[in-house]
TrEMBL record:
Aminoacyl-tRNA synthetase class Ia domain span: 86-247, 304-334
Stretches the record annotates as Disordered: 135-163
InterPro entries: aa-tRNA-synth_Ia, Leu-tRNA-ligase, Leu_tRNA-synth_edit, M/V/L/I-tRNA-synth_anticd-bd, Rossmann-like_a/b/a_fold, tRNAsynth_Ia_anticodon-bd, Val/Leu/Ile-tRNA-synth_edit
Domain Methionyl/Valyl/Leucyl/Isoleucyl-tRNA synthetase anticodon-binding as annotated: residue spans: 390-497
Annotated protein name in UniProt: leucine--tRNA ligase
Pfam families: Anticodon_1, tRNA-synt_1, tRNA-synt_1_2
Every Leucyl-tRNA synthetase editing domain range: 1-74
GO molecular function: aminoacyl-tRNA deacylase activity; ATP binding; leucine-tRNA ligase activity
Keywords for this protein: Aminoacyl-tRNA synthetase, ATP-binding, Ligase, Nucleotide-binding, Protein biosynthesis
Keyword Transit peptide part of the UniProt annotation: no
Length: 550
């Protein structure tokens, strides 16, 4: 940038080669003569005038300097304000061996580019033992001279093939169509198959592809629509861009020039200070910030980054699977948060979902023997489930179904955790209830669900079973919160069945510790009861009851 006073790399270069440094922005709270480091923040302009041209922006806030220069350019007739737009070019050609070869030849005599006839398609790559860079700027394919040197099929003139290849996007822009008809050797996709399967119902892609890949796929599809290869103008009905899983939180401490630790909240430009990574075991949380355990006055910088080898924060899924199992890894990735959000990885967080799967397993199979083995089959019974068990199951089915359709997998898992908590309180586990739960669990933990399904006595995979459907009859709450009034004034509430009788509602109110103090020893003149709505007890404040209601 050639501004050593205000750019770290330029400053280091200028200091090494003793290049003069001219300050043009001065911090509002400092003198530039005290600068020992480059300043990249906002301030006031200095050394920014030219008597010959009449330009003088000294004293202007640096934020306003650009506008000041533009005004001077327009006033002096040297330029005018203009809005610039950035156009994204799709660089299609690649100078590498892998990739689809471009079906174009160039005549030797004129250099004219000619597409090869369709009868010679598809054009395949030649076999090469050496596809390393040529060192001459030509692509590796230029080494295959017997393939490169060819003739124009129509005129017989000598020609050379294009040696650049297509990018990987060339295939990924339309591969969804090939899935509809993968073995067709005559056309890209059969019209009947495309009309049956297309357009794609749900397309899930990473956030980094939210613009470019989606844009190019739509361009490609629209061209295919124009030439009557596909029957729809758009390729996808719904596109979901999943968030990025970031590496674990990294903690950094700042040091001054002498190597002393300083608190992060006392530094200005971070680039001016040395930074040192701190291991998690030396860090603790204090309020909303992180500090050193040994010196809580030192506040640390806590940041998350995309996983990369250079940062050393890559989590190898094979290691997680080896320790916790594939289902635990799969479940944790869904439990981290909404699919569309970026999430921060925390290896210790896997323990929670791992325990949930273990509890689900023990609920169905029973406890392990002293040797660690489990009995065959399950502990379920072939009995009719109770109303409460059916309500618990169908509330879970309803919630999990709703959350799957909305891609809120984390809250779907929470609903199954609630079901397991309720099921552990039951004396018996009806087989029909557990079978439905295992089917609910299968999209989240397919390996364990298949094993449980087999233990439940099924010979076929549960993949062929219909997903459970919630019965609306069991979704209604069986109890209501009933307000209780004493002489017209609400004194509390009680939990009652929807069809609770007046006598039962009064009995429950009499047993309630908060309400009983208003009723004990009092004479009841009247009871007004609206089923499921309210209970109003009118008492005689003057008379004592002969018999205390129990």
């Amino acid at each position: 940038m050639a501004v050593p006073a205000h750019d770290t790399r330029d400053f280091e270069f200028a200091m090494k080669y003793t290049i003069p440094i001219s300050w043009v922005v001065k911090p509002d709270d400092s003198n530039c003569g005290n600068f020992k480091r480059p300043f990249s923040g906002e301030g006031s302009m200095i050394n920014s005038s030219c008597s010959e041209s009449g330009l003088d922006i000294n004293g202007l806030p640096s934020k306003e300097a650009a506008s000041g220069v533009i005004q001077w350019l327009e006033k002096s007739g040297n330029g005018k304000k203009k809005v610039n737009y950035k156009l994204r070019d799709w660089l299609f050609a690649r100078q590498r061996y892998w990739g689809e070869p471009i079906p174009v030849i160039f005549l030797d005599d004129t250099g004219e580019g000619i597409p090869i006839p369709e009868t010679e398609l598809p054009l395949t790559l030649p076999e090469l033992d050496d596809f390393t860079p040529t060192g001459t700027g030509e692509p590796p394919l230029s080494k295959a001279e017997s393939w490169v040197i060819t003739k124009d099929p129509s005129s017989g003139k000598p020609a050379r093939r294009e040696t650049n290849t297509m990018p990987q996007w060339a295939g990924s822009c339309w591969y969804y169509l090939r899935f509809m008809d993968p073995k067709n050797s005559s056309v890209l996709v059969d019209k009947a198959q495309e009309q049956y399967w297309g357009p794609v119902d749900v397309y899930v892609g990473g956030a980094e592809h939210a613009v470019l890949h989606l844009l190019y796929a739509r361009f490609w599809h629209k061209v295919l629509y124009d030439i009557d290869v596909v029957s729809t103008k758009e390729p996808f009905k719904c596109v979901i861009n999943q968030g990025i899983i970031l590496g674990e939180v990294q903690y950094t401490a700042c040091k001054d020039e002498e190597g002393n630790l300083i608190s992060a909240d006392s530094v200005g430009e971070l680039a001016q200070y040395k930074q040192e990574r701190m291991p998690e075991e030396k860090v603790m949380k204090s309020g909303d910030v992180f500090v050193l355990k040994d010196n809580p006055s030192i506040r640390l910088i806590a940041r998350t980054h995309k996983m990369s080898k250079s940062r050393g924060n890559v989590i190898n899924p094979d290691d997680v699977v080896s320790e916790y199992g594939a289902d635990s890894l799969r479940l944790y990735e869904m439990f981290m948060g909404p699919l569309r959000d970026s999430k921060t990885w925390n290896t210790s967080g896997i323990d929670g979902v791992h325990r949930f799967l273990a509890r689900s397993w023990r609920l169905c199979v029973g406890s392990a023997s002293p040797t660690g083995s489990y009995p065959d089959g399950t502990v379920t019974v072939d009995e009719k489930p109770s109303i409460e068990q059916l309500r618990s199951l169908h509330r879970c089915i309803d919630k999990v179904t709703e959350e799957i359709e909305a891609t809120r997998f984390n809250t779907g898992i929470s609903a199954m955790m609630e079901f397991i908590n309720a099921a552990y309180k039951w004396d018996k586990l009806p087989r029909s209830i557990i079978e439905a739960f295992v089917l609910l669990l299968s999209p989240y933990a397919p390996h364990m669900a298949e094993e449980l399904w087999c233990r439940l006595g099924h010979s076929n995979s549960l993949a062929y079973e219909p997903f459970p459907k919630a019965d609306a009859a069991y979704l209604k709450e069986s109890t209501v919160v009933l307000p209780v009034q004493i002489n017209g004034k609400t004194r509390g509430t009680i939990q009652v069945e929807e069809t609770c009788s007046e006598d039962e509602a009064f009995r429950l109110a009499s047993l309630d510790t908060k309400l009983s103090k208003f009723l004990d020893g009092k004479s009841i003149r009247k009871r007004i009861y609206v089923e499921g709505k309210i209970l109003n007890i009118v008492i005689d404040m003057q008379k004592k009851a002969k018999v205390v209601q129990q």
